[in-house]
UniProtKB/TrEMBL annotation:
Pfam families: MIR, PMT_4TMC. It is a multi-pass membrane protein. This is Protein O-mannosyltransferase 1. It comes from the Eukaryota. SMART domains: MIR. It is found in: Endoplasmic reticulum membrane. Pathway: Protein modification; protein glycosylation. Residues 53-114, 126-183, 189-245 form the MIR domain. It catalyses: a di-trans,poly-cis-dolichyl beta-D-mannosyl phosphate + L-seryl-[protein] = 3-O-(alpha-D-mannosyl)-L-seryl-[protein] + a di-trans,poly-cis-dolichyl phosphate + H(+); a di-trans,poly-cis-dolichyl beta-D-mannosyl phosphate + L-threonyl-[protein] = 3-O-(alpha-D-mannosyl)-L-threonyl-[protein] + a di-trans,poly-cis-dolichyl phosphate + H(+). It comes from Megaselia scalaris (Humpbacked fly). PANTHER family: DOLICHYL-PHOSPHATE-MANNOSE--PROTEIN MANNOSYLTRANSFERASE (PTHR10050), PROTEIN O-MANNOSYL-TRANSFERASE 1 (PTHR10050:SF51). Residues 1-26 form the signal peptide. GO terms for cellular component: endoplasmic reticulum membrane.
Amino acid sequence: MVSIRLHTYCNLLAIFYIHLNTLTKAGPHDHVMTSAFQASLEGGLSSITKGQPVKVTHGSQVTLRHTYGRPCWLHSHAHVYPVKYPDKRGSSHQQQVTCYSFKDVNNWWIVKKPDANSLVVNFDDPEPIRHGDVIQLVHGLTMRALNSHDVAAPVTPTCQEVTCYIDYNISMKADILWRVEIANKETGGDEWNAINSHVRLIHLGTKAALRFTGRQLPAWGFHQHEVAADKNIVQKDTIWNVEEHKYTKVDDKKERDRQLHLSEMIPTKKTKFSFLEKFIELQYKMLTFADHLSPEEHLYSSSPLEWPLLDKTIAYWLDNKSNGQIHLVGNM
């Protein structure tokens, strides 16, 4: 029995090896995979893999993608949180920070050295960001800094609200310092690199991590996803990675805004990503991604542990209108 199962798992691994080495081109649903996986495909993420700098430094312009689970990017816009929520809780009325599921010019942020006045990269003496460094993140278009404080988040009140700070000239001071923690520094080094570094941003004032909560904001937040700060730091939803990346070369805001609006976000050239890395990520997505799509279990659904031996059928496709279905039936 053990040899049969071992043979089955070896066959499964071989099938995935053939699959991943044959299907090397990008497709319409690649966005569910991480940036590194997408960048390994032909036709995937050209603006990431071709010509952009690797090292994140003071003055870097970046888009920050939530690495695991639902694909979305750290985002802000000029709209503010409502003064009062329906449950009578109050907010700070600061600028909203969300996770947006589409590429957008409002996804750009500038990495700023806390005591520096200029946002331009010092090309004569660049300063790569390392594990443990303290930074500010300034929103590219509104020029307001990422902030958190002891105010409950809008949809997940057990977490802290995350905002872009607006100075209303009241007692609520700015708390805009964040410490960079590189979660995979043992394998990728302690310098913050675009795409491959898995980063946690820890709010210095409250020791809470920037987190994608997975919950959707109401209409006032345009149904984008909530971003909060969570004191439970070590979890998948607190990991982010830089996707698009370029260096700030001018201090003039109008010119910077013009360049952001012209930013290229169309994929084309692949980078290296090993079979084992692809295999592990694909298994993880197969195990978890359905949780983000539907809370209801299909009548004939099967668990991942049942897939290798095909103890039950695997539902591949369902048409909600006609109820037409395609199932895989085992022959072992």
